[in-house]
Amino acid sequence: MTDRKRWIALYVLCVGMLMIVLDATVVNVALPAIQSDLGFSQSSLAWVVNAYLIAFGGLLLLAGRLGDLVSRRGLFLAGLGVFTAASLLCGVAQSQELLVAARFVQGVGGAMTSAVILGMIVTMFPEPREQAKAIGIFAFVASAGGAVGLLVGGVLTEAINWHWIFFVNVPIGIATAVLAGRLIDPDEGIGFGDGADVPGAVLITGSLMLGVYTIVNPAAVLGWGAGRTLALGALSLALLAAFVAREATARSPLVPLRIFRSRNVTGANLIQVLSVAGMFGMFFLGALY
Q1: Cβ–Cβ < 8 Å for 89, 105
Q2: Residue 12 domain-assigned?
Q3: What pLDDT is attached to residue 214?
């Protein structure tokens, strides 16, 4: 791959990442319009955001591992296809169920796409100085996507309607896939000899989904002390504990627990969890009130 081609490929990958990150926040500004149009309740409206985030966060680790095993380029292109098709479904949705289901599929496509981008960048730029510059560009685009999403969501919702915050992804996704297919060289993964830790992915995804459901449904409707709330919350924690136990014994874990022996890694992840939780909570409540 020539030097010019590598940098163009980087920009294409950054556009794909921008589209994924942007879609995590672009919906927030359109929530009142979506609620009015499709008749969401205040608590169920959270699932328009949560369906995407839970699928994205729950499958991100597994998607990255699959990219290593099969093909990063192949998984990136497949993820773009899933994300673009789901965006089209979101745009044409006329019911709560279809929109939430399509948002979940969007999250799946987003996880497949974004999980392998950084690995592809590191492979394309092995020289340390170039690699640092490329990762810096990627990090800037990824961090700017959240703020840009709020602006784009507001403009499209006011100028046209909320459906277009999803329709706009379709031509961008198609163009990104076509360019990536031409610019990025095919690669081969290491194979399935070490496994993909599917049980671990199922456990953590189930725990996250059940935990969020407990917060936005029984806890909001019945109260935190209700028997159903406590039972589902306990089940979510049990799945999380099972995930930790699985990772401690798995031959190829999604999350090697030894990395948390580093205080820097543990502290950085804790700060990231708190900051992202606060940010998305602020976006959601700010759009409604």
Answers
A1: yes
A2: yes
A3: 86
Residues whose CB is less than 8 angstroms from the CB of residue 180 and which lie 6 or more positions away in sequence, other chains included: 9, 12, 13, 16, 73, 76, 77, 80
Residue type, 219: A
pTM: 0.81
Sequential DSSP letters for 34-95: HHHHHT--TTTTHHHHHHHHHHHHHHHHHHHHHHHHT-HHHHHHHHHHHHHHHHHHHHH--S
The tally of domains found in the chain comes to: 1
pLDDT tens-digit map of 13-35: 999 888 888 877 788 788 888 99
User: Residue 188 domain-assigned?
Assistant: yes
Q: What is the DSSP string of 215-281?
A: HHTHHHHH-TTSHHHHHHHHHHHHHHHHHHHHHHH-SS-SS-GGGGGSHHHHHHHHHHHHHHHHHHH
Q: Distance between CA 187 and CA 111 in Å, rounded?
A: 19
Give the pLDDT score at 235: 96
Q: At residue 243, does pLDDT exceed 90?
A: yes
CATH number of the CATH domain containing 67: 1.20.1250.20
Tokens of 74: 């192949």
**Alpha carbon distance 247, 224 (integer Å):** 30
Mean pLDDT, the chain, as a whole number?
85
Kindly tell me if the per-residue pLDDT of 204 is higher than 70: yes
